[in-house]
Amino acid sequence: ALDHDAQDISMMVKQLSKLFRIGLSNDKWYVTVRDELAHARCYMAIQQFRQKFEIDYKESADSDLLDYLIPKIVLQPFLENAVIHGFRFRSEQAAVQVRFERRQEAGVALLAVTIADNGIGFPDGFDIQSAGGIGIRNVLDRIQLYCGSRYGVRVSAGEQGGAKVTLRLPLIRDES
């Protein structure tokens, strides 16, 4: 691609190779928040290239949270749903935001990850526990298996329309 001055193809190949490198991550079950965000950035860069609409992607995380560990590839399925389902019939600019923050719930410190978009939102009667998507089911099952039953995923309508997904994860410093 570089030899033939095909910059778009070159960029896609670079993003795809980063995506695979982070996703495979030496058979580890957990990655740092920093690596998960890098994986999400690669995915969104590829989607920006593929889609026929603009995507305004933003992320935020306090620097002290970047080295915490989370199950890998927990953002991508929700980002995919936002892009593929949330904006399928929309004409305005797509906006997707990911935010990592420390929270206290019932006296327990946890890592809250919010993925919010301005898409069409969830269909009436949507229940994440019975969602048919493989990606969502996989994330739900892995969070329960790796982190325990007090952690999981909540979905709701966004404050200003669209969809809001909140992942509740433990604060993990090392895999042991």
Describe the structure.
There is one protein chain. This protein is of the alpha+beta class. Helices cover 35% and strands 27% of the residues. The protein has 4 helices and 7 strands. It has helices spanning 7-24, 33-50, 76-86, 134-147; strands spanning 30-32, 55-61, 69-71, 94-105, 108-117, 152-157, 163-169. The protein has a 5-stranded mixed β-sheet. The chain has a two-stranded antiparallel sheet with strand order 1-3. Helix 1 packs antiparallel against helix 2 and helix 2 runs parallel beside helix 3 (76-86). The longest helix has 18 residues, at 7-24. The chain is globular, with a radius of gyration of 17 Å. It starts with 6 loop residues before the first helix and ends in a 7-residue tail after the last strand. 29% of the residues are buried. The mean pLDDT is 85.
The number of distinct helices, counting runs of at least 4 residues, comes to: 4
Distance between the termini: 43 Å
Q: State the share of residues found in helices, binned by percent.
A: 25-40%
- Given helix and strand content, the structural type is alpha+beta
Write the SSE topology.
Elements: H1 7-24, E1 30-32, H2 33-50, E2 55-61, E3 69-71, H3 76-86, E4 94-105, E5 108-117, H4 134-147, E6 152-157, E7 163-169
Parallel strand pairs: 2-4
Antiparallel strand pairs: 1-3, 4-5, 5-7, 6-7
